[in-house]
TrEMBL record:
Organism, as annotated: Phytophthora cactorum
Name of protein: Deacetylase sirtuin-type domain-containing protein
Lineage, uppermost ranks: Eukaryota, Sar, Stramenopiles, Oomycota, Peronosporomycetes
Length: 267
């Protein structure tokens, strides 16, 4: 999620209000104090956009490109045809999400599964090979009536303009709403399309989710059928707060291990 509790604790404006990270990263704050809500997310968004990539992103990008080169060395057409064949078999037995087509799923042997909401991975990596499972500050959604629940969000999702910046007062950490943060469909208040605390109205990105599910399913089938292939799960920057991410890696490894065991092989 956006920022850490440690960062928030150092902000004078929040300390004076006796507010912590969970108070601010809550959709109900939009109704309680609109400018404080937009100030918090505006600070995050401005900061994320100003932050340049560290070398870790370039290392991952080089690895991705190396995987592509290796796959192409073995015959790009052959790799695509194997992916297509596995995809078609899973589609035929209805083991893939409905509406997912093979061209909407990356056939690269590489995928980024992240809880980061800064959208930095999408600066360099193909959108089809990134799943931001908690959403992103670059994408906004209609907020509906958060306080009373009297009006559900209209399900409109939109991107912030690339040249947009929040007009943040750093003394109060407040920012006004703007046209860019207003729902273009119904004119209601907007909010980041980010999963927050106590969030019942977040609109999940089913397209990204389904793309990842389809990719993982195809890769698992290819690994099951070809024991010479290897699966690597690289976890970066995880701790006990990110159990959903850790469990996803374990699920993938356990699924492959079970299938190989059934074939009398060892992972």
């Amino acid at each position: 999620m956006a920022r850490s509790g440690r960062d928030i604790a150092k902000v004078d404006a929040y300390e004076k209000l006796d507010m912590d990270y969970q108070d601010l990263c809550d959709p109900y704050m939009l109704e309680q104090d609109e400018e404080l809500f937009y100030g918090f997310w505006g600070s995050c968004t401005n900061s994320y956009r100003d932050t340049k990539h560290h070398k870790g992103y370039q290392i991952l990008l080089k690895w991705r490109d190396a995987f592509r080169v290796k796959a192409n060395a073995n015959g790009a057409d052959g790799t695509r045809s194997r992916f297509q064949a596995a995809f078609d078999r899973l589609k035929e037995c209805q083991a893939l999400p409905a509406g997912v087509g093979v061209h909407s799923v990356t056939n690269d042997p590489f995928f980024v599964y992240t809880s980061n909401v800064d959208s930095h991975f999408k600066r360099d990596f193909d959108c089809k090979e990134v799943y931001e499972l908690h959403g992103s500050v670059e994408t906004w959604q209609c907020a509906g009536d958060v306080e009373t629940g009297a009006r559900e969000p209209c399900e409109k999702i939109w991107k912030l303009p690339l040249d947009f910046r929040f007009d943040l007062d750093v003394a109060t950490m407040k920012a006004p709403g703007a046209e860019a943060t207003t729902c273009p469909e119904c004119g209601g208040k907007g909010r980041p399309n980010v999963l927050m605390f106590h969030d019942r109205q977040w609109i999940a990105n089913r397209s990204e989710e389904n793309g990842y599910i389809a990719w993982e399913s195809v890769m698992e089938l290819m690994l099951q059928e070809d024991p010479t292939l290897n699966l690597v799960v690289l976890e970066i920057g995880l701790n006990n707060r990110f159990l959903p991410i850790q469990s996803k890696g374990l699920e993938a490894l356990e699924a492959i291990d079970r299938e190989l065991a059934n074939l009398g092989l060892k992972a």
